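Let's practice the habit of predicting before peeking. Look at the sequence and jot down your guess about where helices and strands might fall. Then scroll down.
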Amino acid sequence: MGFQRIMAALDRSPLATEVYSRALQLAVKHNSELMLAHCFNSRLLAEFSPMLDTSFGLSGRNRLRQLQQDHLQDVAQIHKDFQGYCYHAFDQGVSTRYICEMGDAAVWICQFARRWRADLVVIGHGGSSDMREVLLGSVSRYVVRYAPCPTMVVQPETVCR
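Done guessing? Here is the structure:
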């Protein structure tokens, strides 16, 4: 049987390259289609933007403008990275596309996996316990629980040792 449609959910962490590599290995092995997916997580910006603007006046607006500029740079870098991944996968004989959207990353990954009819989602989990994960929860944990298909979670090497 195997996997016909593999979705690699990639973020901007150092683990993303390993997630891509694992997904590509599986796609080569199963002669699968590969979808690279990235979701710019809009939750933090959406929740804190009004507070920055009203609480901190002009400096808050300047900070918001800087956040927006940083976001545009991230978008450009993600597209560049994903194009490189697609060319590399093509050289391996794998049909690969990518999509980048904005939203709640955990929910979006599950919804897109359902719409695209993925057979497998490959996602990374950095094992971090930073404040963002405490406040928002782990994206990979949510995907494992709610994805419409099996999920492979790639751990960083330091966690595996």
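How did you do? Residues 5-160 form a domain with the Rossmann fold fold (CATH 3.40.50.620).
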